[in-house]
């Protein structure tokens, strides 16, 4: 099978449904509070923002993308770290049940990472991330798992683990005679500049907010930019520039749609699909996923995506 590795975050999502008035109040009090569709990282969520969770789900951009890649038919390995509390939330069994190899995930003396997902009345989200165990992913861990990365067909990266070991990994991969195709999701965008300058990053997949935030840093990036734009056409800035329209669906919630896009993009590129076909498949998969609330709950299989496209 085609091999995909996701090196990134593993979280428990604390989902909170909030009114437009509540979200506006948070944004007025805290200049870091994310805009619609954006992700930010904080060390601790203020008490007056920490609403009671309506539900808890498994999440983390790295883990979500791994699950999506597995659903798209790739042999997928998750690399990252969870806390000693992971059993209480069933974090690793959820990955295994989804077809992801979680044998290499580290367990550290820290709480498992948390994402506070604020869902507005229209189903759009704002995400505040507390790194927890994700912050423990270091050079030693990455070096210990270098063989899995080097031998993969595609490597998925995000920005919810420390940047320094990821930058060093990209430098090492540049020196390899063969290496995986690297897809970087710059979420959250703050601090991703060192990664954009690395030659090994082949594809960058920002949403509109991330694209605007990285406008200056993009001058140093020489790869392909795939702009995810919600319900608007995806813009692919490659040698052959093209756009892909998402299909019309009845969306319940957009949480995790970008992760589904990246997972399917990686799996299809690993399988040898053309960039256009990989993007078209990923767009349909991401759109289908929004029909069900939750970052992973609505992820379709590759067969389901193909059937949808055929219709």
Automatic annotation (TrEMBL):
Gene3D superfamilies: 3.40.1190.20. One of its GO terms (molecular function) is kinase activity. InterPro entries: PfkB_dom, Ribokinase-like. It holds the Pfam family PfkB. Residues 48-301 form the Carbohydrate kinase PfkB domain. GO terms for cellular component: cytosol. Keywords: Kinase, Transferase. Belongs to the carbohydrate kinase PfkB family. This is Sugar kinase.
């Amino acid at each position: 099978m085609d091999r995909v590795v996701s090196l990134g975050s593993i979280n428990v999502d604390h989902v909170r449904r909030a009114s437009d008035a509540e979200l506006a109040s948070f944004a007025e009090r805290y200049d870091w509070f994310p805009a619609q569709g954006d992700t930010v990282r904080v060390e601790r969520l203020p008490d007056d923002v920490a609403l009671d969770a309506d539900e808890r789900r498994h999440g983390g951009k790295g883990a979500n993308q791994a699950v999506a890649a597995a659903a798209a038919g790739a042999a997928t390995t998750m690399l990252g770290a969870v806390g000693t509390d992971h059993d209480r939330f069933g974090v690793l069994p959820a990955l295994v049940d989804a077809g992801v190899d979680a044998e290499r995930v580290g367990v550290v003396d820290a709480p498992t990472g948390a994402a506070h997902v604020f869902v507005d009345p229209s189903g759009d989200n704002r995400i505040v991330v507390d790194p927890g165990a994700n912050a423990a992913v270091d050079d030693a861990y990455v070096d210990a798992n270098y063989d899995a990365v080097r031998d993969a067909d595609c490597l998925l990266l995000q920005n919810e683990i420390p940047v320094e070991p990821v930058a060093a990994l990209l430098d090492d991969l540049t020196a390899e005679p063969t290496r995986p195709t690297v897809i970087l999701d710059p979420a959250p965008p703050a601090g991703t500049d060192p990664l954009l300058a690395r030659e090994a990053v082949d594809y960058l997949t920002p949403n509109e907010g991330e694209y605007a935030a990285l406008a200056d840093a993009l001058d140093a990036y020489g790869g392909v930019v795939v702009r995810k734009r919600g319900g608007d056409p995806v813009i692919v800035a490659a040698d052959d520039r093209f756009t892909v329209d998402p299909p019309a669906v009845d969306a319940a919630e957009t949480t995790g749609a970008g992760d589904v896009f990246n997972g399917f993009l990686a799996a299809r590129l690993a399988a040898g699909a053309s960039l256009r076909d990989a993007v078209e498949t990923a767009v349909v998969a991401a759109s289908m996923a929004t029909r069900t609330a939750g970052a992973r709950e609505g992820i379709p299989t590759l067969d389901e995506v193909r059937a949808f496209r055929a219709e």
